[in-house]
Design goal:
Layout (H helix, E strand, L loop, with lengths): L3 E7 L3 E6 L4 E6 L2 E4 L4 E4 L3 H18 L6 E4 L4 E5 L2 E12 L2 H7 L6 E11 L8 E2 L1 H6 L5 H23 L3 E13 L2 E4 L8 E5 L9 H4 L5 H12 L2
Antiparallel strand pairs: 1-2, 2-3, 3-7, 4-5, 6-7, 8-9, 8-11, 9-10, 11-12, 11-13
Helix pairs in contact: 1-6
The structure holds uridine-5'-diphosphate (UDP).
Length: 235
């Protein structure tokens, strides 16, 4: 049993609390949603509860497959116990199909499968709107060591293989997703969350979007989409 301590950090969709164990934090999932670097704000009813359950299931799956993550256990509806990380300020995006910023940047149609998996890095900075960077920037600015980048990429590609297969078996296409990593006692662990907030998930048959694009693009039926992902993931 851990005791919840003071609030350490409040982000757009989650709050981190300290515990009586300096190595462990409580990650609390909120219903708030933001898009376009927080220019658009809203609430997705019960998102926190759904995302905590989805993330718990997917982190559990990844741990079973040998991926090192910050996940310890689900504590309640909206809370999970996680290992404290020193976050690496680099977001790792993995893409299986063209969508979102890749479609915009290269003038491509969304939904085209990629012949090779694409990995991208973004610098975590709200003020700058998370600009895209590459390994030279990561090295030049000391965001992470070369071996750390290597271990993030190796992990991210394995996470992609595992999640793609798991979701495919449940009728969901894993189009792309964003991961965050951090350091914990000299190890690189997968942190943050794995939910429809940070993944593009399309229904394999209808290509209907079952993720935060419904909020970003005002497509409606947002709660229903998250509920469907929850149902399929728990199946
Ligand atoms: N993503 C995210 N947080 C960000 C940016 C992107 O979780 O700050 C996720 C997003 O949900 C998608 C993937 O990363 O699954 C790729 O996003 P993209 O670069 O296409 O950006 P977008 O079109 O959402 O601006």
């Amino acid at each position: 049993m851990v005791t919840k301590g003071k609030k350490l950090y409040e982000g757009k969709a989650k709050i981190l609390y300290e515990t009586d164990n300096p190595d462990l934090l409580i990650q609390y999932f909120k219903d708030e949603a933001t898009a376009f670097n927080a220019q658009k704000k809203g609430v997705i009813r019960e998102k926190g509860v759904m995302n905590n359950t989805i993330s718990t299931r997917l982190f559990g799956l990844l741990e079973e497959e040998g991926i090192k993550t910050h996940f310890v256990e689900k504590l309640g509806d909206r809370e999970m116990l996680v290992k404290r990380l020193e976050i690496i300020p680099v977001e790792v995006v993995v893409r299986n199909m063209v969508a979102g910023s890749l479609a915009r940047r290269l003038g491509l149609e969304e939904g085209r499968p990629l012949e090779e998996v694409v990995v991208e890095f973004y610098y975590k900075s709200d003020e700058l709107g998370d600009p895209m960077i590459n390994t030279y920037h990561i090295r030049a600015f000391g965001f992470a060591e070369d071996e750390e980048v290597e271990s993030m990429v190796t992990s991210a590609l394995r996470v992609n293989d595992i999640l793609k297969k798991f979701l495919d078996e449940r009728g969901i296409l894993l189009v792309d997703f964003k991961l965050e990593y951090g350091r914990h006692h000299g190890e690189i662990l997968l942190g943050d969350e794995i939910t429809p907030d940070g993944c593009r998930l399309w229904d394999r048959e209808t290509l209907e979007r079952l993720d935060k694009d419904r909020f970003r693009r005002d497509l409606g039926k947002i709660e229903e989409a998250y509920e469907e992902v929850l149902r399929k993931v728990m199946n």
